[in-house]
């Protein structure tokens, strides 16, 4: 679903839908867990009623025991975002007087951004502001990745890691050496299945992957 269409679904209480459910009559949206459960129960009851109507249209001597058994169809739904996810994004925006409604706002000036040197840029939507900040942040930056510090040139190693003025030293302690050894063996060993299971379980929790 395009983000603009998603924002347009905000209800009168300012809530955005948590779930999209694909029912026979079309897409329905639930704005909370309770509403999702209620819609699911309502859909199951509708299926049960249609099942009874279908049985009523069939001659009694042709109805088998299997046909009498009601089996609800699987409900297809999408969780549009995790609980609390939207709030985590919206709260920092509100500190700057911004709101999701500005994302594709067609009228009015949202921000005048003054770049170093005095050049001013005027933006009318939050989307334009985000694109500008991303592009501006990339200016003069070249991202390189290394498997180890030994692959860097001496000046790069000094600038990024060894300079006492800029570097940060963090003491690493191992409160449980046995658990640490087990983790290291699992992640670096030759036994693939447990490593794959660990990655699949924790992949979405990774932060600062390039640090």
Automatic annotation (TrEMBL):
Coiled coil: none annotated. Its EC number is 5.6.2.2. InterPro entries: DNA_gyrase_B_C, Topo_IIA-like_dom_sf, Topo_IIA_B, Topo_IIA_B_C. SUPFAM superfamilies: Type II DNA topoisomerase. One of its GO terms (molecular function) is ATP binding. It catalyses: ATP-dependent breakage, passage and rejoining of double-stranded DNA. Keywords: ATP-binding, DNA-binding, Isomerase, Nucleotide-binding, Topoisomerase. Residues 139-200 form the DNA gyrase B subunit C-terminal domain. Belongs to the type II topoisomerase GyrB family. This is DNA topoisomerase (ATP-hydrolyzing).
